[in-house]
Amino acid sequence: MQFIKFEKQGFVGSITIDRVQALNALNNQVIEELSECMDTIEKSKDLRCLIITGAGDKAFVAGADIKELETLSPEKAQDFAMKGQRLFRRFEVLEIPIIAAVNGYALGGGCELAIACDFIYASTNAVFGLPEVTLGIMPGFGGTQRLARYVGLARAKEMMFTAKQLKADEAQALGLVNKVCSPESLMEEVKKTASKIANLAPIAITAIKGASTQGYDLSIDPGLHLERTLFSELFRSKDMQIGVKAFINKQKPEFIGE
Ligand code: DAK
Known about the structure:
Blueprint: E1 4-9, E2 12-17, H1 28-43, E3 49-54, E4 59-61, H2 66-69, H3 74-93, E5 98-102, E6 105-107, H4 109-115, E7 119-123, E8 127-129, H5 143-151, H6 153-162, E9 165-167, H7 168-173, E10 179-181, H8 186-198, H9 202-216, H10 220-233, H11 238-248
Parallel strand pairs: 2-3, 3-5, 4-6, 5-7, 6-8, 7-10
Antiparallel strand pairs: 1-2, 8-9
The structure holds 4-(N,N-dimethylamino)cinnamoyl-COA.
């Protein structure tokens, strides 16, 4: 792959979007390579957490590739939106958690990518925004649907109507970012959290992700039904036995993912 780098350390995988000369903008090829990378990740049995970041020190992803957008017909735009939306939905429903390490500009499609992840850590130089209106278009990779879930509907609308950009600390104050770190410590902090997740019971974490993500779109009773179904399924897992026995015996559990 030309623009996507994937590496694995223990149970933690990292995807880096590496198209530095265009601030990691998402062109068609980047979207296709990311999809291909997800094909492998979805099949992997030994990953428990995923990190996604951008190469260089200036941008996470500066949006969809504006130069490529110029040539799109309405039909091609529909195809492009479908490809991007499908890809970002795969992040959202992936069985393992994904942390976005936002190390600079996360604009347009870059911001949409970050909010399709489970949560965001950002460096102090991060900038978030959905500035599509400045180009006469609108967010097309899920931004109109997902941003409000982080910051509330009125704040999301204001950001999209005005193309307002948020610095890392403002984004944290609005609930868009979980943690702000120095640029030098961002990856270390993200890896620390990823490794903490990777050492806990993976089947339980998958169930928590599923119940939280799917439950968010349900009303309370179907949501509780989903929760108790997944909860009871965990009692079939060896990890549940391992975790409970370790507590009783005052030991540290070694989860096996079964
Ligand atoms: N696309 C293509 N190239 C980009 C780019 C982008 N989004 N962002 C930056 N670049 C390129 C620049 O053109 C420049 O290339 P050269 O001129 O050197 O060849 C290089 O990256 C460095 O950028 P700058 O020289 O501009 O760097 P600065 O530090 O001066 O400024 C900046 C950084 C991030 C403030 C600026 O680059 C900028 O404003 N970039 C555009 C940000 C933006 O508006 N992003 C939102 C894009 S709209 C759709 C689905 C989804 C979407 C659209 C349609 N369908 C359904 C069809 C999503 C849309 C978007 O994401």
